[in-house]
Amino acid sequence: MHHMTLAEIARGLADKKFSSEELTKALLARIAQLDPQLNSFISLTEELALSQAKAADARRANGESGALLGAPIAHKDLFCTQGIRTSCGSKMLDNFKAPYDATVVAKLAAAGTVTLGKTNMDEFAMGSANESSHYGAVKNPWNLEHVPGGSSGGSAAAVAARLLPAATATDTGGSIRQPAAFTNLTGLKPTYGRVSRWGMIAYASSLDQGGPLARTAEDCAILLQGMAGFDPNDSTSIDEPVPDYSASLNGSLQGLRIGVPKEYFSAGLDPRIAELVHNSVKELEKLGAVIKEISLPNMQHAIPAYYVIAPAEASSNLSRFDGVRFGYRCENPENLVDLYKRSRGEGFGAEVQRRIMVGAYALSAGYYDAYYLKAQKIRRLVKNDFMAAFNEVDIILGPTTPNPAWKLGAKNSDPVAEYLEDVYTITANLAGLPGLSMPAGFVDGLPVGVQLLAPYFQEGRLLNVAHQYQLNTGWHTRTPTGF
Ligand code: GLN
Description:
The protein is of the alpha/beta class and 483 residues long. It has 15 helices and eleven strands. An eleven-stranded mixed β-sheet has the order 1-3-2-4-6-5-10-11-9-7-8, with helices on both faces. Residues 125-128, 151, 171-175, 203, 310, 422 line the site of glutamine.
């Protein structure tokens, strides 16, 4: 049962081949058996899952249908879930039970999904390896000695290991696309504002966006359909109709103009990944696409700009964790200042503290113009590069990551080395554009992803290209040994 995609599960449930309750029990048993190797879950929600599965079966028996009705999923542990621990991967929120459901959680529950649990993640979504979690590192099912990517590493490892068909995730600088690439999944970061951020614990509010992680583009379309839409509770949510993403999958790629930026193929890119990117280009050419070299001249400034803006916003967002209102509080504080200092010092891990300090510094009087304002100007230049490129092409294609998944611990002593791994993904967040990573081959037995970027609100175009590619290639169907 565990090999089925969301689309196959929907057909099986509609044809009464099995019930949601049977499927849910089978997957919960599989998680209990295999997750100890991966550490992909922070919390399991068996009772909730079984009651949701029974309710979904009853709705189907009453004649209701729907692609997500009875579908088992899991939520990254930064989506608030009412009455259930929502830890954000941090000791700070280890004891936090959310008082309400995030909009994404509520929408998916209303569509009939079954929540199996909350997935592991980098603390406050800061990281590219899922090693900064208070609950320990997540392992990559393709090689247990390697990282699964981050910060949505738990969602990625669980889906890749066939513990469940799909999961929610979030992407501030690549945290959906990069773990998708490292674990042979398809992951989509929607346009900023397409998916509500209400109840999604904030890291960098102007960059954060929720989206689906699944094995196929077809499944990303199904899950995104349940997540997307206007939300009056999120002031940056966009009031635009949500198209039928599944209906967009089958468009022809004849004449599709694909831009390949020359800056992507610099010295930092593993040449074996460059070759797989070129192979994917050839595959899409066979399907009728036309390839054009383009330029994104300001790309080189994106990492420094991101690593000023994201920590700046984080330092502000995380000021609410003060030992008074939420989460962790130190023992026996001597006075109010001691309470703040020790609650934050003991509750936040090293990477989170590093970012708060960088962000507070960049925002401080005297440095604001030199760092924060400068970074915002670069952000506009990065966006302008994309706007110019999309006058010439329909889609931009390149590697998702410069290297395949590295060994656990390999970058722990050098945070900047880890930041540099985000070079291909963060530009989409700075510009607010949608991006997708899809499986495109293997290097040393480790999966490699190809990234597609599209103009605002063209998620359907990304899913269309990825689906057509997946109909003609088999990379996404490969399964890690032992799972
Ligand atoms: N790796 C990036 C960071 O650490 C992106 C993380 C994310 O997208 N949440 O900030």
